[in-house]
Amino acid sequence: MSSEQNPQLTIGLCRTCNGVGVDVKQKRCAVCKGIAVGLSDDKGSLAWTRVLTPEGVALRSAMSYLKALRLAAVIIASAGFLGWYAWLLYTVTSQQQPISTVNGVWFWIGALFLAYAISLAMRQGRLVYKVSEVRVQKIPDIALAMTDELLGVIDRAYRIAAERKDAEVLPAHFLLALAKLSAVQSMFVRLSVHPDAITKLAEQLLGSAAGVARPVVGQETFALLFHAFREAEQAHQLQVRSSDLLLVTVRALAALQEQLYSLGVSMEKLNNVVAWVRNHAQLKDQLHIFRQIARTRPTSGIDRAMTAIATPLLNQFSEDITLAAQFGHLGAIVGRDREIDQVVQLFEGGAPGALLIGDAGVGKMAIVEGVAQRMVLEEVPAVLKDKRLVSLSISSLLSGVSPSEAGERLLAMLFEVQRSGNIVLSIPDIHTLVAAQEGGEGALNVAGVLKEVIERSGIPVIATTSPEHFRRLVRGSVLEGMFSPVTIAPMEVSQTIHVLETKVGIVEYEQGVFFSYDALEAVADFARKHLQDSPMPESAISLMKEVAVAVKNKKGANTLISAEDAAEVVAKKTNIPVTAIKEEEGDKLLRLEEMMHKRLIGQDEAVTAVANALRRARAKLTSGKRPIANFLFVGPTGVGKTELAKTIAEVYFGGEDKMVRFDMSEYQTPDSIYRLIGQPDTQGSGLLTEAVRSQPFSLLLLDELEKADKQVLNLFLQVMDDGRLTDSVGRVVDFTNVILIATSNAGSQYIQDQVRAGAAYETIQEGLLTKELRNYFTPEFVNRFDGVIVFHPMTEETIRHVARLMIGSLAKKIEEQYGATLTVTDGALEELAVAGFDPQFGARPMRRAIQEHVENAIAKILLEQKVGRGSTITYDVGGVVMVE
């Protein structure tokens, strides 16, 4: 477990009042003037002036109660006077008397009380400063930026200490007060921890009370308040919230971190859940800010100076993204600050345009929207200020017209943009403009028109395209020189989790379920590992929606979705075992050797090494960044190398159909590598990449690896190293759920000679690694295998067991098809073992011997219809077959 601690802070307390701020008579301290606690850090000075005494806490509680009581009284008075006026009106009207006879003074008195009530309600809350504004105040009191909820928690913590008669207010008192907040309880529910458990942990940390009536607040506790402020400051929050105090409180309590870890809550998880809460708070703050800006920012496309010109044609084929940002219609943009900064800096440096290059689903348009939001907030250089970011719809532009007509449309729109002077143009999928000019003879060069006008007028442009389209259509075209490329990579898991946190609320509302943090973390992790067809975060967002629907259908509404729920959905979707190991599967994993030996005779060292690797992988003890296991099986032909691979496919993956097999003797030339990964700059993938992409949970068998070309071997070096391979169209294919087994006859003669000489298994293995295999493979390549497994030549005893297995397989087939029983006498079995034994070719002659002697004889009597259901076929010495 890795714990976290708050950085050391040196807090200054007034020695006269000991940080209280008042004297014994509850008057302001004459020495510190109420500024009883202070901190100096690298950014300046901070203070705490709020009085934490029984009298101070009680006074604030009473004042809050009195304010609420006053407001209620004024509202009741207003309702009374207005109600009385309404009653008089009703009475006069029912008696058909003139309305003028009613004294209007009651109405005006009621209206005055109502206005006063509204005024009180507006002034009920105190003025809350932004975190960024505190340090510039004359008295930089951190309480100025704290929410009312947080200040209430601090007072409640003091009251708890006083009620318990504790000598000092401690961090555990803060935890106890925080645990009563519904928002904090929801956070721990997301972490799959019952809120009562947190209350019990806090009480355990406090222990027994000291019996003191007036608890004091020490430096350690005051330091937490400053830590909470600095935490909010570093996170660029508007206010200091209860979640900030929770985070720094847990960091201050090492024993609490250990207890939480035992409940499955690490500090990383807690940090991410706090970030989840912050994201939602920032969304609300952002919406409020944008609505305020919308009141002063033009919505008609005109700039503030009223110098811009309307763009009616452009408006037909575009969307104003800045306008959408003004009214809060864009979602939160998380995890892409670096890319947004890069785009903004390009324009600040004088670049004419930025080209965002990334696969569909990585979030290119989210970056464009992030730029639009910064433009609305005016957190951009002068070249982007007081401008509109307008996204051009290429599909609408090209719809129903020839390339020539589309070019004329574009030319007219660009003329409007140029005249307006306040537009930044966004062009999604700009490669479609290059494709559009392939319109035959006389077609207008649409891309050329765009380049010419933009270079002449200096219109800022943000365009997007995919890596494949960039290579095929944009690179080398007239558009390439217009833009500075910005590569948009798929998000990492941590970034994707934050994206899911911003979008999960809508999914939860639609489906009526709730995601735990572990479930979101699992969704992001599974999407990265097992859903390779689309990049992060799109794959994770789609999976999150799919999990929500599946869990609702299975368990009903109001269900808290766990990581195991997400794992079950992924397991069904991909046929990859990602769920927790059940008792039945655990028993199966412990008996792997026994199950393998039902099909493979001997080769104990090979079976044991493979079984251990499979158990490690299923228990998730592997790195997860390489294949499940990489094995090199070496030995003479016919000793069971391929048979063990088939056995693994059946036992671990569920069937021999889960084995992808390549005969490496077909890949002996350098250009054969393209058969495996595809030809560059062409559509379609290669045989290897397509096979693994379509069946990611499988066994990859490379037969006779020593015959492959060196470049092909280097390809598999990358697979064993990184667990991934990029095909010819730029798609990354994941190999981390593959068991890679390569077979080789290299060193077969050496193995046979050493076995005859009685050498130990380890000696033979060492000789292969240091000498024999180096004639075929580089040491670097051999070292990438998790194990080089040596298969011994067949002995006479082993071949007898092989004969029994093959006869057993034949008997099972006869029973299934004809309902008859096949038995082979011991004498006949001995004859078959002699006929099928060849030290040079292993078990392969045995298969031929059974086919020639047993299967041929039985086929004749079956065709003669001498065998019925329940019959017993006996094969005896000399090839005699009897039916009973």
From TrEMBL:
Picking any one GO biological process from the record gives:
cellular response to heat
Domain (AAA+ ATPase) ranges: 350-492, 627-770
Single GO MF descriptor: ATP hydrolysis activity
Show where the Clp ATPase C-terminal domain sits. Answer: 794-882
Q: Which SUPFAM superfamilies match?
A: Double Clp-N motif (SSF81923), P-loop containing nucleoside triphosphate hydrolases (SSF52540)
Report whether Metal-binding shows up as a keyword of the record. no
Know the name of this protein? Clp R domain-containing protein
GO CC term (a single one) = cytoplasm
Instruction: Please list every transmembrane segment annotated in the UniProt record, as residue ranges.
Output: 68-90, 105-122
Sorted alphabetically, which keywords does the UniProt record give? Answer: ATP-binding, Chaperone, Membrane, Nucleotide-binding, Repeat, Transmembrane, Transmembrane helix
* UniProt cross-references to PANTHER family, sorted A to Z: ATP-DEPENDENT CLP PROTEASE, HEAT SHOCK PROTEIN 104
What Pfam families does its record include? AAA (PF00004), AAA_2 (PF07724), AAA_lid_9 (PF17871), ClpB_D2-small (PF10431)
Q: Does the keyword Protease apply?
A: no
